Amino acid sequence: MSADELAPKLWRIPIPLPAIPGAEHLGFCNAYLIGPEPWLLVDTGMTTDEGIKALDDGLAAAGVPIEEIDSVLITHHHPDHYGMSRPIRDRSGAKVMIHRRDVEMMYESLWGGEQSFGAFLGAHGGPGFDGNAPPLLGAKEYRPAAPDAYLEDEQVFELTDRRVRVLHTPGHSPGHCCFQIGDEGIILTGDHILPKITPHVGYFPGGNPNPLGDYLDSLKRIGEGGYRLGLPAHGEVFLDPASHVGRIVAHHEFRLKATVDALGKGAKTAWDVVPEIFGGDLPGFHRFAAFFEILSHLVLAEYEGLIKQERDGDKILWRRA
């Protein structure tokens, strides 16, 4: 894939992703170059030779030297979005900005915070895990820059011919942000809305207390924005973001009911529920992704009074209310 100009001074630069667990099915991360002066870059991909070349080729196609990038805006902290920010800052001198909540979550994931990653898994019935950090956060291709400043909801970047507005849209991560392009009816959706798949929303150490509830509220915000065009972090540009909001909300309503039904008349850990919903033959990484997603549905169901938590020693069990 090559860079393309989607609107005047708005370029999509697809950055190829390495075939590592959790990223192999994605193929590319779409970085977006927004101008004119000062130029902004939204998301970076991961640090590989192929990724660096794709970025350089895209900047050359746009006629923008890397030194002219003023700020690198990160939709969220996941490696496929944040993972080349440090090399880009080293080469350009640009400011790197991300929402504070994602930095806080990175701290929890990498250094354990109040509860290590392994202890969290064990409490919810998962297998033993040697270490604190999820594997992707230790990948050599993940080279995030310490942020120079934090993104804030409704923050506005003033460019020569347009404004870029930050929309804090928690759910996929606690600090996830979308970016509205002026009054052009265009929204950069990051991983908040994707055109062909339902974004993953999991419950993690250091995350928000009710991430799926946050996500559904954030979806409504985008759905009510009147946008005509969505620019996702993965996949192709899509029309009518509001129609995708309806699709995703319907999916989670169905999954919530299925998750509650899977508890039956007894008490189960989140890990026990996974094969009830996804089957028992998921490969390693995808089993973990399913586990965190099931947890987010269990937590939302508890908030809605449909189920309750109970303890069995050091295990957390869930039972229908």
What does this protein look like?
With 321 residues, the chain is α+β, with helices and mostly antiparallel strands. It has one domain (4-241): Ribonuclease Z/Hydroxyacylglutathione hydrolase-like (Metallo-beta-lactamase, Chain A), CATH 3.60.15. The protein has helices at 49-62, 79-82, 85-92, 100-111, 117-123, 211-223, 241-262, 270-278, 284-303, and strands at residues 4-7, 10-16, 28-34, 39-42, 69-73, 95-99, 149-151, 156-158, 163-168, 177-181, 186-190, 229-232, 238-239, 267-268, 307-312, 315-320.
Descriptive terms for the model:
321 residues, alpha+beta, Metallo-beta-lactamase, Chain A, 7-stranded mixed β-sheet, 6-stranded mixed β-sheet, 16 strands
Secondary structure blueprint with pairings:
Elements: E1 4-7, E2 10-16, E3 28-34, E4 39-42, H1 49-62, E5 69-73, H2 79-82, H3 85-92, E6 95-99, H4 100-111, H5 117-123, E7 149-151, E8 156-158, E9 163-168, E10 177-181, E11 186-190, H6 211-223, E12 229-232, E13 238-239, H7 241-262, E14 267-268, H8 270-278, H9 284-303, E15 307-312, E16 315-320
Parallel strand pairs: 4-5, 5-6, 6-7, 11-12
Antiparallel strand pairs: 1-2, 2-3, 3-4, 8-9, 9-10, 10-11, 12-13, 14-16, 15-16
Helix pairs in contact: 6-7, 7-9, 8-9
